[in-house]
Design a protein that fits this description.
The chain is an alpha+beta fold. 25% of the residues lie in helices and 25% in strands. The protein is built from 12 helices and 26 strands. The strands form 7 sheets. Strands 3, 4, 5, 6, 7, 8 and 25 form a 7-stranded antiparallel sheet that branches. Helix 7 runs parallel beside helix 8 and helix 8 crosses helix 10. The protein is globular and about 75 Å long.
Length: 495
């Protein structure tokens, strides 16, 4: 009920703000012409919602005296994407230096159908999820390594597996300049050129894998099992995306662990770039089960929205632990201590789970430092309330701008440089093992810490290649943490 009221109230406020600006338009009888509809939508949406609205002079409430002045400004940006980028606060595209960028995650699409699918785990995908690393220090050549194969994908029918290394596509060496076009271009068919690695050197092995992209739904629950070690029944769950349409399956997975009487839990988020805030709260509730109704996280919006809620309903910007998904009881395993596996690909909603649990239970983080995404977004459409209802039928543009910073119940949320692991063990190309196997290095370390059999921190075997990117961060998912409910429309807001 709190969530429903929160969104109705927020978008009523959105309507009030839009109506105020519309009044200005009416005074000079100048509306935005149809040929800059998209640009007008972008400016109005960012002016109202953008987290750093106050830091962008061209988004100031007093920047334009009327709609006519705004129209003149918008005509200077015939390409919507260019306007969007220009209105962001220090975006990574314009501030590529280390530590220079502030907004690293806002984005815009020209087809909201693709955006909606991506946020629910549906992508145009051949099923190879991979990491990319620099071939050597100072080189612009990169190499890829398979992290896992998505079940029921095209790749799942081919001779390719976790740990395989590739250096090229269609015979062309991958570089920092061409990887996007080769791996994520318009061609759905390509061939990966594989290599062997020996002592840090990569040698083409003549093996080539032809792959085809299809529309693919990824179930984020890749591995769910129980490992018995002495007196411990250790639940192991590899969870690769906070996709709300899989929350029931996630609850069932916890039900299976609960029925087997697990004593400990290892949650593997090393490849999880995030997703729904609501799913994060549900997952935290499945882990604990003791804090229903207590604060899991608190949202911090821009000054305009914050002032409204401070005066009217400050509780509506909080996310709570829960005991239900709709009317279905959550299967909680009652952990007071959890082991979470992470990597540099662990981001947003995954980091939220770690940070949100820390005030309540002991969180042992094993692996590498995380991405550092402590900000969240919401999908904005070109409609009177920026929701799905009454969208402009002339285009399919939508925005996913950052609109909030999120903190835990203790008020901590300053982890933009990443969450540091309790025990550092980087996953590298040369130390891969079968996911879910007790011998897999990160899981092995977690089991050792649970059972007390590993008291000395192991070193990462083999050569460590500098991380570049991963497939999910460049395949439309964009390491998101987003509010689950999109704007609901004016009539619903006024009910």
């Amino acid at each position: 009920m709190k969530s429903k009221f929160k969104f109705k109230t927020l978008f009523l406020f959105a309507f009030i703000a839009v109506f105020t600006f519309q009044s200005c338009q009416d005074q000079d009888d100048t509306a935005a012409p149809a040929n800059i509809d998209i640009q007008n939508f972008i400016w109005n949406g960012l002016n109202l919602y953008y987290l750093w609205q106050a830091d962008v002079p061209n988004l100031s409430d007093t920047r334009f005296a009327n709609q006519k002045e705004l129209n003149t400004f918008l005509y200077g940006y015939p390409k919507p994407e260019t306007l969007f980028e220009s209105l962001l606060y220090k975006p990574s595209s314009l501030y590529p230096g280390t530590g220079e960028a502030v907004d690293r995650f806002s984005w815009i699409v020209d087809d909201y159908l693709e955006l909606e699918g991506a946020l629910q785990g549906t992508t145009n995908n051949n099923g190879v999820e991979f990491g990319l690393s620099y071939k050597s220090t100072g080189s612009n050549e990169i190499i890829g390594w398979v992290r896992y194969i998505i079940p029921n994908s095209n790749a799942s029918t081919k001779d390719i597996k976790r740990g395989d290394v590739f250096y090229g596509v269609n015979g062309t060496q991958l570089t920092v300049n061409n990887y996007q076009a080769l791996l994520f271009g318009s061609n759905n068919d390509y061939t990966l050129n594989l290599a062997d690695i020996n002592g840090g050197a990569f040698t083409p092995n003549g093996k080539n894998i032809a792959l085809t992209k299809t529309v693919l739904d990824e179930n984020p629950i890749l591995v769910n099992k129980v490992i018995v070690s002495g007196s411990h029944k250790i639940g192991y769950l590899m969870y690769n995306g906070f996709y709300a349409n899989y929350d029931t399956q996630l609850n069932d997975a916890f039900g299976a662990l609960k029925s087997q009487g697990i004593t400990d839990l290892v949650l593997d988020l090393r490849y999880n770039g995030g997703g729904s805030v609501q799913t994060s709260a549900r997952l935290a509730s499945m882990i604990t089960g003791a804090y229903t109704g207590q604060v899991f996280a608190k949202q911090q919006w821009n000054a305009k929205i914050e002032s409204y809620f401070a005066a009217n309903d400050p509780e509506s910007l909080k996310n709570f632990f829960t005991d239900k998904i709709g009317t279905t009881a959550i299967n909680s395993v009652g952990m007071t201590k959890i082991y979470i596996l992470t990597s540099k690909s662990t981001a947003s909603a995954s980091e939220l789970v770690i940070n949100g649990l820390k005030p309540y239970i002991t969180v042992v983080q094993i692996g590498d430092i995380t991405t550092g995404k402590n900000v969240g977004s919401v999908t904005l459409y070109d409609s009177p309330t920026f929701g799905k209802e009454n969208r402009n039928p002339n285009h399919r543009y939508a925005m996913q701008p950052l609109v909030l910073k999120i903190v835990n119940s203790a008020g901590f949320g300053d982890y933009q440089s990443g969450l540091e692991p309790t025990y550092t063990l980087k996953e590298t190309i040369s130390n891969l093992d079968v996911l879910g196997s007790p011998t897999e290095p990160l899981l092995s370390l977690a089991i050792g810490k649970i059972t007390g059999t590993k008291r000395v921190m192991p070193q990462s075997p083999g050569q460590d290649f500098d991380y570049f990117k991963d497939s999910k961060s460049i395949n439309g998912i964009q390491k998101q943490m987003y509010l689950e409910k999109a704007p609901e429309g004016l009539l619903k807001a006024l009910e």
